[in-house]
Amino acid sequence: MKGFETEFKDLKDYILKITYRIWEERGVERIRDYYGEKAPVKTPTSVSYSVEDVISSTWDTLKMFPDRQLLGEDVIGSEDLPGTFYSSHRILSTATHLGDGFYGSPNSSKVTYRVIADCICRENQVIDEWMVRDQSAIVKQIGLEPDQFARQLISNLKEKGSEVPTAEEYVNRWTGPPDSGPLNGAAKNLAQTYQAIWEQSEFSILEKSHNRACQIHAPEEKVIYGRDQLIEFLTGYTKSFPKGSFRVHHWIVNEEEGKNTRIALRWSYSAKHTGFGSFGEPTGAPVVIMAMTHAEMQEGLVVREYNAIDEISLWMQISSYSMS
Questions:
Q1: For 260-270, what is the mean pLDDT?
Q2: What is the reported pLDDT for 258?
Q3: Residue 185 — left, alpha, or beta (φ > 0 → left; ψ -120 to 50 → alpha)?
């Protein structure tokens, strides 16, 4: 890897090693070695713009979950320019809620949740990052309800005089370099499938895109089996947020030997909360789903899919509108 320390044999090795060193070896101060001084980190609920912010948030998380383990499941990546790499990595975390912080007072609950993060890496450092954490999984497992938790977060923001970003600001947060170019091949087919589902509720298209025995990992650490359960899950969303606008912000395709393909998509869906579905009574709130998907395909069909959606962010957008 041009510009990287020789110990890293490839992008996957780099991402997994620095993740392990920072979190499990508690080398939090080494973040200064592995992140650019002004590297932005963007999530559906927050944005930070300096390496010191990354260090502070890492310590805050370890205070709440001191025994957190990060199991690296996959890294999908590309070299966009010589020495500039784009990675989309997926982590399964296990932890115990043992300290005060964002999720309230500790109650020793065991939690399991996934994170997908997109990173631009150059000269041995992460210089830009987008991340989605399955916060509703954490909240549910520590005994709270996502909608009530989000409502309290909005109350806290209003007390501080802060506001939830506008829909346009959310979409802009999810954009950014590098440009992965026009969609093509398997990524284009999958994106067109998602667009038909989200914008037009065209669920029959799944017969041509997803294996009958597909396994889907969804928010709240849910596992969905087969197309019928997938349609039920998606219907809950599309009824709540009908006829919106689906947009892919970045994509990567990694072809493997034989017929296996892995795809990473960073995407958003903008709509209004105008229907009865998985998100309660409609409020008319403008909502942006800021998501990431990892899809594994065999013989042209999705067999496994990991959808990172922060439902706490969605509930916050709904609560902010209804409380205004």
A1: 97
A2: 66
A3: left
290 & 171 share domain: yes
Q: Is 163 left (phi over 0), alpha (psi -120 to 50) or beta?
A: beta
Considering the chain, what is the average pLDDT of its residues? Answer: 96
Q: Which of 139, 159, 179 is the last residue of a domain?
A: 159
Q: Which of 159, 175, 192 is the endpoint of a domain? A: 159
> Comparing C-alpha atoms, which of 199, 197, 194, 228 is closest to residue 211?
228
One-letter identity of residue 194: Y
Rounded-to-integer distance, Cα 204 and Cα 322, Å: 34
CA distances from 139 to 50, 265, 288 (A): 27, 25, 20
Q: Backbone phi, then psi, for 113, in 5-degree steps? A: -160, 160
State whether 137 and 178 are in the same domain: no
Angle at which helices 226-240 and 185-200 cross, to 10°: 60
* Secondary structure class of 285 (helix, strand, coil): coil
Do residues 233 and 155 share a domain? no
Residue 163 pLDDT grade (very low, low, confident, very high; cuts 50, 70, 90) = confident
Token duo for residue 45:
């609920």
pTM of the entire predicted model: 0.96
Distances in whole angstroms, Cα of residue 165 to Cα of each of 141, 162, 320: 27, 9, 10
